Amino acid sequence: MNNNTVGFPLLASVCKLVIVLLCCVGLVGCSTLKSLTGNKDSKLLFKSRDQYVRIVPQDSVKGAKVPANGQPVSLDEEQMRMALASLEFMTPGKVSSTPVFEKPELDVLARYLSTALAQAGPEEDVAFAVVGDYRAVYGLAKEQMYTSGRVFYRDGKLNIIFGAIHGKYWPNADRRLYPMAPGSRSKTLPHTWVLLGQADQAFYAGPEGQRTDWVVLDLASMEARAAMGEKATATQAPGVPGLQPYYGAQKTVEERLQTLNDLKNKKLITDEEYEKKRLDILKDL
To answer: What is the pTM of this model?
Structure first.
């Protein structure tokens, strides 16, 4: 009888403690999820199961004012696709790089990120999460992995703060606990992947130093290189071979001259750059 009178109160106390802990975790998860899905100021543009593209308020930085974004901005789908397709990364133990996005993910993001940035205001960002099928270890099967990020346009450049790159995706996971959240201005989330720096790309440098999860893309320069049929020279990360990715297919001399005139008329290049490029193109005749 004494054992029973002692055991039940102890069991009840343990149960209460477990319930309290679960509630606390749930509240934290709900808070994160609500910032993406439940905020009345957010706007959903795309959703497919756990995948999403959504306009959300800028995230805050403690003790600092967040600069306004240069939005709304008009970026066409091909321009967005080219920028996203240029992103590659390395993971520990691998000797070659991997594209951040495959074609199905590019199809979604090129369309909806362009639309979202055209609708977003200067105090709004675009959050996204996409899921892709990738080869598992030894290439014997495929597994689903997700990539998430925060996107905004500022000072003529496209900013992407990644929350995850090819993170393990569990279809039936509780998103209150695993929300597939984008990156944050306030801090770098733990990660083992390494984005490769390339021409027309730079890592954001803040008060705490360079952010390896925050990449800034110079779209105008990318567009000019693609128009000229040039290839971008990757900068070499420690222990990582440099890349030579093509921005676009090679064009004829006539097409390159016409494109060069268009770039000059749009004031994307200077008169000096125009003359220099014109002479370079004519050398191929």
So the answer is: 0.71
